Hints:
The protein is α+β, with helices and mostly antiparallel strands. Helices cover 59% and strands 19% of the residues. The chain has helices spanning 7-22, 28-54, 86-109, and strands spanning 62-73, 76-85. It has a two-stranded antiparallel ribbon. It is flat. It starts with 6 loop residues before the first helix and ends in a 5-residue tail after the last helix.
Amino acid sequence: xxxxxxxxxxxxxxxxxxxxxxxxxxxxxxxxxxxxxxxxxxxxxxxxxxxxxxxxxxxxxxxxxxxxxxxxxxxxxxxxxxxxxxxxxxxxxxxxxxxxxxxxxxxxxxxxxx
Length: 114
């Protein structure tokens, strides 16, 4: 799962694009289910990565995943990358887990609100 870290921000982005362009005008339940499912999928990937990180030796509990080079000038190279260590994985679990709960709660709370 550590090689799938890019999916954690990608799933909610896909949910936003689906709800904005594809599911516009559809039922509240469908739109809410898609939004909650995408954030829930991010939580599942984060949880899998967290447990995989825990299985690593303590000294090497960090993973850097380079996505692409952003700026290359001479000897300087700035890359877009993800760094997963113990603290960032805890924060990913908290943010995605609480966001999922907020989505599920808001489906019922906002029911029928135009």
